[in-house]
Design brief:
Structural class: alpha+beta
Strand content: 15-25%
Shape: globular
Largest sheet: 8 strands, mixed
Number of strands: 22
Helix content: 25-40%
């Protein structure tokens, strides 16, 4: 039965959904990486947010918890070009990620800045051809201002994170357009699955990942070739996904379980009201195309799931026009995430809010067998990049996926996105 306490808490929630803090309720990108405030829980029920005021000392904690860089242009609209791809006639893939440029490649007597500026066109051509370029051992990018100087020499134009409207990623340096790259200590034991940085609506063309402080152990930056994945996934699995399309649930609102204890007529009367209010709040504040749908089962209770539109798992690169695997199933599939990390502990309020999943385009379940086939192809082709201080990896976001291994100790990596 709904109690005054339940209704009071729900009023707070719905008020939040229509306020500027709706970004705390919808997240995307690497699943479960939102930086919303920790939430106090009592007797299994969610209470109001509890702001943490402990003194910040770690490298991660020194990063700003502002999540917006409004001075930058928005992330570009996603370039979808997936019709008519013949998956039986894929071109061979002979490249190996990443292309490496070392400090020792700089001619004697030439400064790093002059070298980067002189090699600009060649480096960007290599990035398109190879998908990722790793610059190793340079001193210039060891500082945040030096990193900015690096991408300015390449004449790259920064843009906002694709998830800027939901505040899913903290800002390391607003002036230098640098976002935090999953350094959160509470996420250190969780493997960040392979993904392109995109939503259905927005996708950045390029990304530059920089290391300012490597973890004590682990924490390697990970790469996955989207062109190679098309050849590595079992043909029947790939064709099935391409023909049926996929659809992601990007978050869930788990605040409505008390309705299960109300009389059925009351529950049926209140559900459309809450769904309408929540949908209006999401539409007003979130720069994503999301549909809220009810879901109910014994394990998760009654919740609203936020779904992105149906989309193809394969896309053409906007420049080369070659087909690539462009599907965040490895990071968003609940089955794969739970298989490698165990079920997300509910020690914070974001644990359920950030829970994601993937389905066929008609919202039917993808079989565990097919998900395991995708995971096997993914893990077989992972490239571990043990970045050191000052190293930068440039990534073509439309053709190469990225992720992060588990780690111990402090870690400070950052990323800047480009149009």
């Amino acid at each position: 039965m709904a109690t005054p306490s339940h209704l009071c808490k729900l009023c707070v929630l719905l008020s939040s959904l229509s306020s500027s803090r709706i970004d705390a309720f919808i997240v995307g990108g690497p699943a479960g990486q939102s930086l919303v405030s920790e939430t106090h829980r009592t007797s299994g029920r969610m209470n109001t947010p509890l702001m943490v005021t402990a003194e910040r000392t770690s490298e991660f904690e020194k990063a700003s918890f502002d999540t917006s860089i409004d001075e930058l242009p928005k992330c570009p609209v996603t370039n979808w070009d997936a019709d008519g791809i013949d998956l039986s006639r894929l071109p061979p893939v002979e490249r190996t990620l990443p292309h490496v440029i070392s400090r020792v490649d700089v001619p004697v007597g030439m400064s790093e800045e002059d070298y980067i500026m002189s090699e600009r066109e060649t480096l960007l051509e290599q990035l398109t051809a190879d998908g990722a370029v790793w610059l190793r051992g340079f001193d210039l990018m060891k500082s945040q201002d030096g990193f900015r100087r690096f991408y300015e020499l390449l004449e790259l134009e920064p843009c906002q994170d694709p998830l800027a409207s939901v505040g899913a990623r903290a800002v390391v340096n607003k002036k230098n357009a640098m976002y935090e790259a999953v350094n959160k200590p509470s996420r250190a034991k969780f493997f960040v699955g392979m993904h392109n940085e995109h939503t259905f609506k927005r996708t950045n063309r390029l990304g530059a990942f920089v290391c300012f402080k490597p973890a004590e152990t682990g924490g390697e930056f990970l790469l996955l070739d989207g062109k190679k994945m098309l050849r590595e996934i079992k043909p029947e699995v790939l064709q099935r996904l391409y023909e049926r399309g996929v659809r992601f649930s990007n978050a869930e609102l788990p605040f409505f379980d008390f309705l299960r204890n109300t009389p059925l007529p009351v529950k049926e009367a209140l559900q459309p009201v809450f769904q309408t209010i929540a949908s209006a709040g999401v539409s007003a504040k979130i720069d994503m195309e999301l549909e809220l749908r009810w879901d109910e089962n014994d394990e998760d209770g009654l919740r609203l799931l936020a779904f992105s539109p149906p989309q193809p798992p394969v896309n053409r690169h906007p420049i080369t026009k070659e087909p690539v695997w462009f599907c965040n199933v490895h990071s968003h599939s609940r089955y794969l995430r739970d298989s490698r990390d165990g079920k997300l502990p509910e020690t914070s309020g974001s644990s359920k809010l950030n829970r994601t999943n993937m389905f066929y385009g008609d919202l039917s379940q993808i079989s565990d067998e097919d998900l395991r086939a995708i995971d096997e192809a993914t893990m077989k082709n992972l490239v571990y990049v043990p970045m050191k201080e000052g190293d930068v990896v440039l990534v073509d976001n439309y053709q190469v996926m990225h992720g992060r291994s588990t780690f111990t100790g402090e870690r400070l990596h950052a990323v800047t996105w480009f149009q």
